[in-house]
Design goal:
mainly alpha, Arc Repressor Mutant, subunit A, about 120 residues, 2 strands, two-stranded antiparallel sheet, 4 helices
C-alpha cells in the first residue's frame, strides 16, 4: 500500500479537519505509521495544495504546527471520503457473505445426528 493511499489521505484530512493542532506524533500513532512517513504524507499534502501548515505561536512546543485544510483540501476530502466509502462497502459485503457462509456451516455442524 502506498504511504499516501486513499485510506491514509482520508484519515489525515479527517484528523486535521477535526483538530488542526494535532501533532505529527499523534497522527503517526492514529494511522499506525512511522513519524517519518507521517512527515512525508503531510509534506505531500502541502505540496498538492490540500493543506497549509503554519507555526502555532501559542504552543509551548517550539516545532508545533497548525494544519488547515485549503478549499482544495476540503474538496479532496469529500472525494476521498466517497472513494473510501465505496471500498469499505465492498469489504463489508464480502465479509457479510463470509459470515453468512460460516453461520450455515456452524448450523450444519450443530445439526442433530451429526457425528462430526
Amino acid at each position: 500500500m502506498s504511504v499516501l493511499s486513499d485510506e491514509n489521505r482520508y484519515k489525515i484530512l479527517k484528523l486535521l479537519e477535526r483538530n488542526p493542532e494535532v501533532s505529527q506524533r499523534e497522527i503517526a500513532t492514529e494511522l499506525g505509521i512511522s513519524l517519518g512517513k507521517t512527515n512525508y504524507c503531510l509534506k505531500a499534502l502541502v505540496e498538492k495544495g490540500l493543506i497549509k501548515a503554519g507555526n502555532f505561536s501559542r504552543s509551548k512546543r517550539k516545532g508545533a504546527y497548525t494544519y488547515f485544510l485549503t478549499p482544495k483540501g476540503i474538496d479532496e476530502k469529500a472525494k476521498v471520503t466517497l472513494r473510501f466509502l465505496r471500498i469499505k462497502k465492498v469489504e463489508f459485503n464480502k465479509l457479510q457473505l463470509e459470515i453468512d457462509e460460516l453461520r450455515v456451516e456452524a448450523a450444519r455442524l450443530k445439526a442433530p445426528g451429526n457425528t462430526d
